[in-house]
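B., you asked whether I could sanity-check this one before it goes into the benchmark set. Here's the sequence:
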Amino acid sequence: MVKQGDILEYDVLVIGGGPAGSTAARYAAKNGAKTLVIEKRQEIGSPVRCGEGMSLAWLDELDIKDTTKWVSRYMSGARIYSPGGYMVEINEEYAGNEVGGVIERDAFDRDMARLAAEEGAHFMVKTSAVELLKEDGKVVGAKATHLGKEFEIHAKLVIGADGFESQVGRWAGIYEAIKPKDIMTCFQYRLTNIDIDADFVNFFMGSGAPGGYAWIFPKDEKTANVGLGVQLSRLDGSKTPKDYLDDFIDSHPGLKKGKPIDMVAGAVSVTHPPERSVADGIILVGDASRVVDPITGGGIVSGLKQGKIAGEFAAEAVAEGRTDAEYLKRYETLWRDKLENKLWRNYMAKEKAMELSDKMFDKIIDALSELDLKKVNVETVLEGVRKKYPGIMEEIEKML
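And here's what the prediction gave me:
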């Protein structure tokens, strides 16, 4: 147990014990760095603030062998609905980062922490960073509190993994504020006693969720996470995300008879990649570095992949004795080469989707439903619409 005024010494300090932070810690420790993770909550993974849908295509990349502890149900694919009820179905292989399995997020987070601990990473829960420690402008650790006791953690490199509202990023002077149009505010029930096809994730587009979408992530044959996200800039005070979700549920008989057994509310960043994610002595990872998919709002998979890069690089930087911002730019290059193009492409697609009317969504989904889709991208959308609705192509191409 730490005492008031203690000073702890580590190679790498990770602030935030979510999947990205734990994965960064796992690979830092695996590669020889003495690593500590601090997490402000009293339990890794709780409370859950997540729709819990996730691709499983990354498992081999991170050497994950056993998913039985945290996969509730495997999905066959996704169904995307327009406001008028048109539907396109995409199989799991091509449906994106939210399709593959519906997970138990608390158990998942704990399993990622377990993997890090098995590699030698140390964890301290109910421990909050309250200030970054700096010497000559360089981050050299953090001041923290644990059970009312304040102490210092000195580290050769700090990894900020404390979510999209990251205090660490702001303290380090990395962040600019996210614009309201790039924040999705969400509300979700876990409903039971409902009628659903439990083999598919469902997404519902259009003005019923202004600037966002509604979702159904099945947990079993009669239970699902049913939620909705609304663009923050489109909330005018007349309705809350809960109001929009209640209206959505009331309009679907199979959901309306359901009983809520829990509910969560929160917000997610759907912005573009940041200009930078490093400063002297510090790097950011996961939601803190804004690698959330701007279309879906899902950030787990990107955060895991980036976390592995961050951990391996952190161990290398510490071993080389180079944690200055100039050297840390190599981390920027590594994660951007892997993730940035898709994030920017999806951000631009999100921006254009915001301009679509319900009528346009109907025509696009109707056109796509008649194609033998392998993957939805700009080219397949244009091809499908051009074939069925050539008269609206000029309008769409102007937007694009």
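One thing to flag: The CA atoms of residues 206 and 285 lie 32 Å apart. Otherwise nothing jumped out at me.
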